[in-house]
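Researcher: We're reviewing a set of sequences before deciding which ones to prioritize for further study. For each one, I'd like a predicted 3D structure that I can look through quickly. This is UDP-glucose 4-epimerase. If possible, include the structure in token form so it fits the rest of the review sheet.
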Amino acid sequence: MRILVTGGLGFIGSHTVVELQNEGLDVVIIDNLSNSSIEVLDGIERITNKRPVFENIDLRDKNAVQDFFNRYSDVQGVIHFAASKAVGESVENPLLYYENNINSLVYLLQQLQAKPEAHFIFSSSCTVYGQAEQMPITEEAPVQQAMSPYGNTKQIGEEIIQDVAKVSNINAVLLRYFNPIGAHPSIEIGELPLGVPQNLVPFITQTAAGLRKELSVFGEDYPTPDGTAIRDYIHVVDLAKAHVVALQRLIAKTNREKVETFNIGTGKGSSVLEVIQAFEKVANQKLPYKIVGRREGDITEAYANTDKVNNELGWKAHLSLEQALDSAWKWEKKIRGSF
Ligand code: WQD
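Model: Here's the predicted structure for UDP-glucose 4-epimerase, in token form for your review sheet.
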């Protein structure tokens, strides 16, 4: 069985390809290189001694997607990462997000529903919960009105998959990620944010590397112990391994009509100030930062209840916040040439 990884040259996708190849699985990557670089293929090969097959395809091109599946008729599993994912950009340019994130999903599913058997893992996000009422967040927490078109595309994507799975042979699972951070311990692959990083950890590492003057902490007036917002930061390698386990469970699953949802997090919340303190410890240097106003659309707190994924998938996160920050820092220094 060959596994298609869409967005496989991206941050989470590339780390997942490494874990799939480590398990001896045959992988083909589709990526349109809009938010990644071809050098990531070299990094994957250096880690696993195996270069994945790569197809530079834009999933918005329906004919190109159909042609791909005609040429790769042995693809029976798909892990779908490819999507635009910048919350702020989605507010500015909603149609870019609806076209890219929804049309691509539809074209993939159209090809899969024609197959006698197809396993499908959807990259979703805890953003669908908005500000959940209760912490830690379980999969039963209500999906709230999306705070951005990006978040809405994840909600709509989940609903499309639920509808299609009921009337096809598509055997699907939805993985709702919390906050992925860090880099592979080999430092051969990691996060490559284009432009000014939107996310906390790449902004921290770029500040520590001297690319940014200082980190702006978005708000210190949240109802949390130290006033800064709390998130569940999961090492990207732990997250990648969750996909391998989820695929193995999908293949073994008998009741294939039911689409299961899993929160993929560590189960531990960390505030922005706690992340800064942890980073200063692993980097052994002070991080320049200033407190500014809250960022539009940010929630106070989100961390996962991991009982379901622990018990039903048999997966749990093992790597710590410090290990993730240490790998992110080592990666930053390497790509800045000071490693
Ligand atoms: C984390 C915390 C910020 C930057 C988003 C998406 C989510 C997923 C991960 C795609 C927040 C604070 C950040 C900065 C700061 N993306 N922060 N200064 O917003 O929790 O989640 O990215 O899948 O779907 O919603 O992650 O890293 O942007 O922010 O103070 O320069 O760090 O306010 O509290 P977020 P983040």
